[in-house]
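JOB MANIFEST
job_type = single_chain_structure
chain_count = 1
residues = 259
[input]
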Amino acid sequence: MTSNTHPTNFALFRDCFSSLILHRLNLGIPKQQKRRGGKCRENAVNSISEPTPSGYSDEGDSDASELADFIEFLASEVFDILPPELKGLSYTGLQPGSQVGRRRASTTLLGDVEDFVPNMPPSVTDSIEAYGLLSRSTDLANLVSSIIKEYIATATAAPPTWSNTRASACEICDRGWIPLTYHHLIPKQMHEKALKRHWHEEWRLNSVAWLCRACHSFVHRLASNEELAKDLWTVDLLMNKEEVRAWAKWVGRVRWKAR
């Protein structure tokens, strides 16, 4: 499996897959009827649980383990057939002096995505459809394109200038074995307003928290940029909210097995 030859990038790709799948489950998209006797790989997950309207599944670690297996299966199947240039993406690799950077000077990697989606393995297509992760019949291309585009953006992102503040685990769910992203506790779009209205002093504007992608996406679904800047501008303030604590408890059970 080529996911074993690019373990760092596969971890990023799996994290992007996880974020979107968890987001779909959390949104409560109407479920399609599960199909029987599909062509999914034998070790594909047979059932998964989604968050209930009043909170998150609290039936123990088994549901989260099945969900992790399901995401691992989908991510591995798709990553293994990505073009080599997408598998080995890096920030330095896309710079003008690099081989890929020179070849891509006047083009974009996103073109590869459009060519790739129609060649999705039947096992992935059947699994995604069987577990109701599509909101409409034409949504598969959008779903996969969103994941791959987010992976491209993540894998090629420049290192943050404040990387020395990096935490060893997500500051919400405390998972330390998955890639972390930096969350602007005071969204950059709100800096001017925050100063004008005296919500914060200037030195605090660039404060960040290190979150896994799933928790990062959850925070931005939880509140608007203004609410984050005015009322939820520290991890402690976020964790004071009951729905954040419930999310952290639930998503913290989604764990990847050793490869």
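[summary]
Strands lie at 180-184, 208-212.
DSSP finds twelve helices and two strands in the chain.
exit_status = 0
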